[in-house]
Amino acid sequence: MTLITILLLACVTFGTRYLFLEGKLPVRLGPNVRQLLSFSGPAVLTAICMPIVFVHNQQLDISLGNPYLWGASAATAAAYKTANIYWTVGLGIIVFIVAGYPI
């Protein structure tokens, strides 16, 4: 049953991607749907990252000693100020390392 479910989901995923990526097919999205889908990337990224940043040992961790919180805050500030992926990732990693391993 699990294998059938995985195969069906793979077919659905491939089918939907193929419909919109194949240039020869006459399927086009309207502007409202495009605008709605533009929010899906940040929403999925937030849903993946927030448990990593805030949950440790099955508990909410919002203390100032949380290096994940410091790194995420620095990366958010860098993304807002620079809009450069290299500065954002680099600063987030550096702040995470410094906050996690105090000298």
Keywords for this entry:
103 residues; mainly alpha; 2 domains; two-stranded antiparallel sheet; 5 helices; extended
Total count of strands: 2
What is the H/E order? HHHEEHH
Low confidence ranges: none
- Fraction in helix: over 70%
Molecular shape: extended
**Helix segment tally:** 5
How do the strands line up in the largest sheet? Answer: 1-2
Structure characterization notes:
The chain is mainly alpha-helical and 103 residues long. The protein has 2 domains: 1-38, no CATH class; 39-103, no CATH class. The chain has helices at 2-21, 31-37, 40-54, 67-82, 85-100; strands spanning 55-56, 59-60. It has a two-stranded antiparallel ribbon. The N and C termini lie far apart (53 Å).
